[in-house]
Amino acid sequence: MPVYSPSGSGSVHVDKVLTQLAIEFPIDMNFAGEVLFPAVRVQKQADKYYLFDRENTKLELHDTRAPGSIANEIPGRTVSTDSYYASEHALQIPVTDEERQNADTPLTPDADATELVTRRILLAREKAMKDMATTAANYAAGMSTTLAGVNQWNDYANSAPISDVKTGIRAIHSKLFQVPNTMIVPWLVMSTLEDHPDFIERIKYAERGILTRDIIAAIFGMPSLIVPGVGYSTAATGIPASAANITYLWGKDVIIAWTPPGAPSMRNVGFGAEFNWSYPDGLVAQVDRWREEPRKSDLVRYSRRYDLKLIGHEGDNLLITAYLIKAAIA
Predict the structure, then answer these.
(1) Would you kindly state where each structural domain of the chain is located, as residue ranges?
(2) Cα distance between residue 151 and residue 193, in whole Å
């Protein structure tokens, strides 16, 4: 085990209890990034992966073989490569002896410290995923739109959200010949859709004329509809987080995507991937704790090694497996 001793004392200790706490830190419906960027476990920090061509969709008209003749021979598939580099993202925090000794219930300094560094890393990771997913320049031509004015879904008299989404579905199907199965609708947008007359009209004769997310998902034809509502602080270093500088992380952009079911596979095109370089114990993240006696403190550090890549493209890094609706509401 490697020695880590910034103050000349102690060595790295992977705390099993803290590690489990970190790994089980809730990633619930407030987070959406892992759906678009499922983790792909890798053995090396940097490596290459293959991108296959689409020759298996080509129609061959010369496949008739006469008796005794040789079958027509066709060229094989070609592949290109892309690469990843799993940078380590880590934060640490001291837990002083005084803090631990003075803490009253329900304060738990060690657990609270672990939760804080974990939350910060995961929020930054989610923000990076969101930024990649909502940047129109990452999408191929015809795979994104920006709504404005009366076309935004909060204009109940003029907007047409169902039609807008159907346009996105058709755009994806025209590239993949697969019906997209995942939709990310941020909480602000969903709370607007729940009162939109286009949906009310569709269910007014139903037994229960009350819109739910499941009903909206069914109207859109989406097996998976995710409504992230997590907030994050935009405060600079040294400025406390407060209601004045906290905003919705996923904003007002809607994403429609094809995400292959099951475990990620490089032969299954999707939206993106998190190339996750696991630690020696096989965990995707690690919590270390070590003693610094001169400071009378224990240091707690959370680390995760990953690289985020868009994989739903044909070699030009422009997505064809998803459709982006920018500024769905004002």
Answers:
(1) 13-53+85-326
(2) 13
Q: How far apart are CA 302 and CA 24, in angstroms?
A: 13
As a dihedral over the C-alpha atoms of residue 129, residue 132, residue 133, residue 137, rounded to 10 degrees, the angle is 180
Amino acid at the residue 74: I
Distance of CA 30 to the CA centre of its chain: 11
What the block records as the tokens of 197 is 């007359």
- Six token digits for residue 138: 């990452």
Q: Assign residue 191 a region (left: φ > 0; alpha: ψ between -120 and 50; beta: otherwise).
A: alpha
The whole-model pTM stands at 0.84
Cβ neighbours of residue 68 under 8 Å, at least 6 residues apart? none
What does the alpha-carbon distance between residue 286 and residue 307 come to, in Å, rounded to a whole number?
Answer: 16
Contact 132, 160 (CB under 8 A): no
- Give pLDDT tens digits for 141-199: 999 999 999 999 999 999 999 999 999 999 999 999 999 999 999 999 999 999 999 98
User: pLDDT digits over 10-29, tens only?
Assistant: 444 445 444 444 433 344 44
Q: What is the DSSP string of 36-61?
A: HS-EEEESSSEEEEEEE-SGGGPPPS
Round the CA-based radius of gyration of the chain to a whole number and report it.
Answer: 25
Give the E-state strand segments of the chain in sequence order: 13-14, 39-42, 46-52, 79-85, 87-96, 144-146, 182-184, 224-226, 231-233, 246-248, 254-257, 272-277, 285-292, 297-310, 322-326
**13-53+85-326 to CATH, choices 3.40.50.280, 3.30.70.3550, 3.90.1690.10, 2.160.20.10:** 3.90.1690.10
